[in-house]
Amino acid sequence: MRSNTRRSRRFAFLVLALLATAAPAGVLVQAKPLATAVDNTAQNWLYVGSDVPQDKEWIFGRLPNGLRYAVRHNGVPPDQVSVRVLVDAGSFYETDAQQGYAHLIEHLTFRDSKYLKSGEAIPTWQRLGATFGSDTNAETSGTQTVYKLDLPGITPAKLDETFKLLSGMIAEPIFTPQGVKTEVPIVLAEMRERSGPQTRVMDATRELFFAGQPAATRSPIGKVETLEAATPESIKAFHDKWYRPDNTIIVVSGDADPQVLLGQVKKWFGTWTAKGPKPAPVSFGKPVAPKGGDPANPVDGAKVLVEPSVPMQFNYAVVRPWKPHADTIAYNQGLMIDRLAMALINRRLAVRARAGGSFLSASVDQQNYARSADTTLVSITPLGDDWKAAVADVRAVIADALASPPSQADIDREVAEFDLSYKVPVETQRTQAMSDLADDITQAVDIRETVANPDTVYAIFKKSLPLFTPQAVLAHTRALFKGTAVRGMLTTPRNTGASDADVRAALVAKPVVTGNVRLPTDKLTFAQLPAIGTPGTVAQAQQTGVLGIERLTLSNGVKALLWANDAEPGRIIIRIRFGGGLAAIAPKDAVYGPLGDMALMETGFGKVDRNQMDELATGRKFNLNFKLDDTAFEFTADTRPSDLKDQLYLFAAKLAQPRWDANPVLRAVAAAKLQYAASGSSPQAVLQRDMGWLLKDRDPRYKAPDPATLDTVNPADFRRVWEPLLAQGPIEVDMFGDFTREQALDALNTTFGALPPRTAATPPPLDPHFPAHNETPVVLTHTGDPNTAAAMVAWPTGGGRTGVHESRQLEILAQIVNNRLFDEMREKIGASYAPQVESVWPMDLPAGGYLGATVQLRPQDLPAFFVAADKIAADLVANPPSQDEIERVTEPLKQLITRASTGNSFYMSLLGGGAQEPGKFDDIRSILVDYSKTTPDAMQALAARYLVHDRSWRVEVVPQSKQ
To answer: What is the model's pLDDT at position 963?
Structure first.
């Protein structure tokens, strides 16, 4: 049972009035009755055998050819339609000789079809306003293939064209020798880009956990030999067998009359006919019990995997056969008790880890994996090299939960959290995006369950409360840890001498049940906490003239932006900006920047530690997010009206009464070391780790700290660095969402208004320099797949608000370069799966921007990338792009902004620091024009200004053996 929601569109018209430059999309007319009646006996096909109340927002049905559908109206965002075409066939349906075919067909479907000839698909969808890779995409798993389309700016003509094109792609793709020859290298490039240590760990884990089943070896990406042997005829045979209307489901959620949407499904898919009889169902097998051993603890598989650049991890699974079941209310109530049992264990594990346990983190989860196995998964990250102690500690916590029931106080704590998780969707259901609703249906079909609206889910939860008893939780806990087999894997970055027998011994050993893992029953409340100080008052209030946003100055100098609106009922987003950000951190103390990001909120405040903060948060919607910006520090949260005041208290208390526990700092150091070890495991990971530092001319404040640097860290110096930073001003509080002005002022004045006045930070100006031009690339190395490499070429641009309009035009240029690089590296030579081009322009710094192109490929293809990038840049300098090239970029950008602008987060992201810098409000007014209107000459002028070869900088990441 999955939850569905809906939303009104009133707010969208308000913000679009601010950004409007074009006429609204055409209104979709009422559909005429269908000429051919649907099968009324199959209207509830998703709910067969279930007593879960059907979500009446959806219209379910089955066409005479067997195709099932689900359609509904949803206006989030306005004038968009989301379509999902689900084919119930994935990699588990392949024969040995067909491995990779399901995924290859996904690619070929976009290559050539009845209404879209070779090379037309991507440009066509772009002209319709859809971005390739996000708005138009597909994914293949072991059990299904799903084609996804989110089409903005829908009109009757675009809707009809959309379903026409989709029908040709799904029902009548064209498989040609040239198409196969072109697409197979692209799939192999995708295979290379997804290879590496993490992939090898996942593959080895599946092979162990699901031994003897297709899930163990049938990866959707396939095998090189079967892909290279593919022919149009062999691919067509797989397509004809599984791509048939009685094996397909079409899900449509959009801003249109559902009968109009149903009419399109019928018009374009109703005449589709299957080729041959329907195939027999495919068996995915089931776990087999080990011979002999202990039936109570049937440890079957145990393995040690040495994989450099991967943090040490111990995972084990209790596996049971997956069984089809009726998705009834009683079944879902059982799942709720399962979830309650696991939540109790996970909370105890978190408390144990924070208290100085031998593990950094650990968790328990239950998953029905790919209709192949019902599994209970335990994941453990040791704090150091002593994995045996970590496994023993975690198993002791689990053993305690298996030995005796939890207290009613324990249950009540978790039930309060459940109440929040089920109630928030009820409060915010009008904000649910149509794309999420469509995805809910496809996921429900895959796991063979139903969907329900949030009111139904919450009602079932409330009805279930009497079932949440200590004895019921104990029984479900014991059931979760009983299974056909227990299988465990230790992943280690180096050979520690551990053997498969050691892993088995760790799982066979009888855990020691200790009595110190239970949580105290007393609960801290906000009423017990001291006031921040004497409440402040509003010294100045003025309207900004934009969307009703108000700018305030409190009596202590704190500034605020308030925007009360009903765009997203039940939701408030908050951002607190204070201090000087990275600029205020001395280069010699650079290591403490990212550690603050990881540990600062874990240290609590005043006399309240992190566990007590969890007590305060029970049943409440709080966030404790912290990040470093270039020129400010930021707290962010997503809360609800009833929790607004206490959410602000948590942030204000962190500034007023900082706490300096040592253990969170030590744990952050351990986590940072693990992250750094993993950052060398692939060429893309190395780029992500080092680009922020190298493109800032090696400013240490942007560098990921290495293990040697982390070894110099101590909690006393952490406090020395961060205590004065937390005391810096200025402070700005931004609140956008569902609140009243009176409510906001009360919360502000008693929290941030009660802080003592602060002195504004005066750090030296942060003026990052772009590295000097280099003809010979900087060479970095990775420890992953020796057949993979990555590269980047970047050109310096600029920074600062004075160039805001040019920065947006540069995004258009970047996307033009991206389309050309995509065509050159992927379509023409198949060297890369997904080259990326981005434009970065820091608004709060005078410089530091760049336009950069990155790619992952084979080491021997690196020269081809640099040649292609230089060729594209030189051509754009010498010749303007075509108007069609521009429109393929500007139409998706316009639609992207139009959709994003229907939510509060869009405006908050643009107005960071707006209370201190009012000019940012003026910048909003031109955003849609800046991103959607330009000329070929303007693009050529930008290219001539910035894509200068003698200013470019390049880097490549090669395997260590290729250095």
So the answer is: 54
Q: Which two tokens stand for residue 784?
A: 């992953």
- Number of alpha carbons in the 13 Å side-chain half-sphere of residue 536: 24
Q: Whose CA is closest to 949, among 850, 876, 873, 879?
A: 873
Contacts of 959 by beta carbon, 8 Å cutoff, 6+ apart: 781, 782, 783, 784, 785, 786, 787, 788, 789, 859
Residue 825's closest CA among 119, 186, 133, 227?
A: 186
- What angle do the packed helices 156-171 and 258-269 form, to 10 degrees? 40
Banded pLDDT at 515 (limits 50, 70, 90):
low
What mean pLDDT is predicted for residues 298-319? 94
Q: Which two tokens stand for residue 395?
A: 């198993």
| Structure confidence at residue 1 as a pLDDT band (50, 70, 90) | confident
Q: Which CATH architecture has domain 526-754?
A: 2-Layer Sandwich (3.30)
Average pLDDT over residues 455-469: 97
**CB atoms inside a 10 Å sphere around CB 805:** 13
Three-state SS annotation for 263-326:
HHHHHHHCCCCCCCCCCCCCCCCCCCCCCCCCCCCCEEEEEEEECCCCCCEEEEEEEEECCCCC
Contact between 560 and 554 under an 8 Å Cβ cutoff? The reply is yes
Determine contact, residues 652/554, Cβ cutoff 8 Å: no
Pairing of strands 248-254, 68-73: parallel
Distances (CA, A) of 774 to 401, 793, 817, 867, 954: 61, 10, 21, 14, 7
* C-beta of residue 679 within 8 angstroms of C-beta of residue 686: yes
Q: Indicate the length of the chain as a whole number.
A: 963
Instruction: Pick left, alpha or beta for residue 697 (phi over 0 → left; psi -120 to 50 → alpha; otherwise beta).
Output: left
Distance, in Å, from the CA atom of 502 to the CA atom of 289, rounded to the nearest integer, reads 21
pLDDT tens-digit profile of 895-942?
Answer: 999 888 888 999 999 999 999 999 999 999 999 999 999 999 999 999
DSSP assignments along 134-145, one per residue = TTEEEEE-SS-E
Give the separation between CA 156 and CA 170, rounded to whole angstroms: 21
DSSP-derived 3-state class of residue 199: helix
Q: Which helix (H) or strand (E) holds 364?
A: strand 359-369
Is pLDDT above 90 for 758?
yes
Query: Do 470 and 405 touch, CB atoms closer than 8 A?
Result: yes
List every span in the chain annotated with CATH 3.30.830.10.
299-431+448-508, 526-754, 778-962
State how far the Cα of 476 lies from the Cα of 402, in Å rounded to an integer: 9
pLDDT tens-digit map of 702-748: 999 999 999 999 999 999 999 999 999 999 999 999 999 999 999 99
pLDDT of residue 765: 79
DSSP SS3 for 467:
helix
891: pLDDT strictly greater than 70: yes
Q: Is the peptide bond before 53 cis (omega within 30 degrees of 0)?
A: no
Indicate the Cα dihedral angle 508, 513, 517, 518, nearest 10°. Answer: 120
Please give the CATH superfamily to which domain 778-962 belongs: Metalloenzyme, LuxS/M16 peptidase-like (3.30.830.10)
Q: Is the pLDDT of residue 630 over 90?
A: yes
Average pLDDT, the chain: 92
CATH homologous superfamily of domain 299-431+448-508? Answer: Metalloenzyme, LuxS/M16 peptidase-like (3.30.830.10)
User: Average pLDDT of 778-784?
Assistant: 93
What's the whole-number mean pLDDT along residues 341-362?
93
Residue 568's nearest CA partner among 437, 435, 427 is 427
Amino acid in position 435: S
Banded pLDDT at 771 (limits 50, 70, 90): very high
Helices 715-726 and 592-599 pack at an angle, to 10 degrees, of: 80
User: Tokens 């397509």 appear where?
Assistant: 239
Q: Are 106 and 863 in contact (CB under 8 A)?
A: no
